[in-house]
Backbone:
């Protein structure tokens, strides 16, 4: 007996054409994790919901389980996050990085944990107006890594537990490390960089905004420099643990 159809909230992660009129859609759902589906006939001009099945659209979908692919039998738009994203290269690539990273992280997630969906949808919404979209992206990635169980240590030494702050960082070592535990090739970030990463991990946006404003008042450009260093550390830590490059992050850094 086949399983009954069900409804769920979903974000379109990616799509590709299938056959003459169908489309394969990868969804990050709130209650069922990552779901691969086929939307039959949506490339025909008379499709009822084909235009809704695109990245940055939050949907309420009706799904019918299949052996290899679920079937999408209905899709209603809950929110469209594309406005404000697709017109701006940095915001667009940050949003793509959220979806691509969420897809990679969802592979190890249980289907009944809504955290990754909720965090992804909320971040897409904030990216539309965030003063620094890359900082917003890094906050999402740090929190998502923490939820997955491999957030970087940012104060105590990741190897021996010696209290920090420390001035070395290496993804394979677990993040910040003391001088004794420091492996070859470790980065040497300023203490303020790791502090910024800690703020982003814990959602301390008042501290982030004050640091940005202070740097703007003085005109020293230090916040931009520290944020750039933090981004490279977040990227390195994410890709080391995923064991896979996130192509959207490569495009972001090329922009």
Residues:
């Amino acid at each position: 007996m086949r399983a009954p159809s069900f409804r769920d909230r979903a974000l379109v992660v990616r799509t590709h054409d299938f056959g003459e009129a169908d489309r394969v859609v990868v969804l990050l759902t709130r209650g069922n994790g990552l779901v691969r589906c086929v939307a039959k006939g949506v490339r025909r001009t008379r499709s009822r919901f084909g235009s809704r099945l695109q990245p940055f659209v939050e949907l309420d979908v009706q799904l019918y389980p299949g052996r290899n692919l679920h079937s999408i039998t209905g899709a209603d738009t809950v929110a469209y996050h594309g406005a404000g994203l697709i017109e701006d290269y940095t915001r667009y690539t940050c949003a793509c990085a959220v979806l691509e990273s969420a897809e990679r992280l969802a592979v190890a997630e249980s289907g009944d944990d809504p955290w990754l969906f909720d965090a992804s949808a909320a971040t897409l919404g904030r990216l539309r107006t965030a003063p620094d979209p890359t900082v917003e992206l890094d906050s999402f990635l740090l929190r998502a890594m923490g939820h997955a169980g491999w957030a970087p240590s940012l104060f105590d030494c990741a190897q021996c537990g010696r209290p920090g702050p420390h001035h070395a960082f290496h993804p394979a070592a677990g993040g910040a490390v003391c001088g004794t535990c420091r492996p070859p090739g470790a980065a040497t970030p300023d203490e303020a960089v790791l502090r910024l990463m800690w703020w982003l991990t814990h959602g301390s946006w008042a501290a982030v905004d004050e640091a940005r404003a202070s740097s703007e008042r003085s005109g020293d450009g230090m916040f931009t420099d520290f944020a750039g260093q933090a981004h490279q550390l977040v990227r390195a830590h994410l890709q080391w643990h995923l064991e896979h490059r996130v192509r959207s992050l490569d495009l972001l850094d090329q922009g």
